[in-house]
Amino acid sequence: MLTGANSGVMSLDYDSEPSHMLLAGSNDFACHIWNIEDQRHRHTLTGHANRVYCARFMEDSGLVVSGSNDRTLKQWDLRERACVRTMFAGSSCNTLVTIGSLVISGHFDKKIRFWDKRAGDAQSNEITLQGKVTSLCLAGDRNTLLCCTREPSLKMIDLRKNQVVSTFTAPSFNVGADYVKCILSPDAEYACCGGSDGSVYIWNVNKNKVEKVLKEHDHTVTACSWHPDGNMLLTCDTKKKVVLWSAF
């Protein structure tokens, strides 16, 4: 068991090489980092003025970026244990992903924002959607981005064109919280997200249709995680029930 956060953990990110570190964004207004090998709490990054909804390691292993309900994103240098960059979004940041030095964030005001280090602290581009953005998932090829919105729908965005190329919906699908996480399968052929009715929806990306609906939860499913081999799926709901799916 890892201890050190003083409130609920809203996001996790794992840096397997070379440091084996686990990063958490927490409702205690901070980011926390543990070393998995010795299970020691290594860093507490403070500076946000409200809950930290998301945090990610950047490709430079010494850098971390976080997004908060205080409407800012912050970049941290772990070697200096200090914030080295603050990005003012003007809207609560619910989710983010990184590509090299590029940060892509999803927000309460229905926008996806792009932050390029070459543009300084100002955003370099944005995409406006039809609902609050609850999560982002980057495909392995880094050319496509899956996002979940409270419209409710999932959107597939071509990052080379910065435009929506597919929309995934279902008659009974509804996003039950502002922090619901969507995910792509390792081969990016399937998109998955939990619904407010406790169902887990899996879409075939190429056919743009619901492939399966898994039923075991009784409450809003907030998070899904695919095994790297693609043969198992882990889901979690608001009542702390976790289900491991296989042969689905």
Q: Count of DSSP helices?
A: 0
Q: Summarize the amount of helix as a percent range.
A: under 10%
Which of globular, elongated, flat, extended, rod-shaped describes the shape? Answer: globular
In which order are the strands of the major sheet placed? 1-2-3-4
Q: N-to-C SSE series? A: EEEEEEEEEEEEEEEEEEEEEEE
Key descriptive features of the protein:
single chain, 248 residues, mainly beta, four-stranded antiparallel beta sheet, 23 strands, globular
3D structure, described in words:
With 248 residues, the protein is mostly beta strands. Helix content is 0%, strand content 54%. The protein contains no helices and 23 strands. The chain is globular and about 50 Å long.
Give me a quick take on this structure.
The chain is mainly beta.
Helix and strand topology:
Elements: E1 9-15, E2 21-26, E3 30-35, E4 40-46, E5 52-57, E6 63-68, E7 72-77, E8 82-88, E9 93-99, E10 102-107, E11 111-115, E12 125-128, E13 133-138, E14 144-149, E15 153-158, E16 163-168, E17 182-184, E18 190-194, E19 199-204, E20 209-215, E21 221-226, E22 232-237, E23 242-246
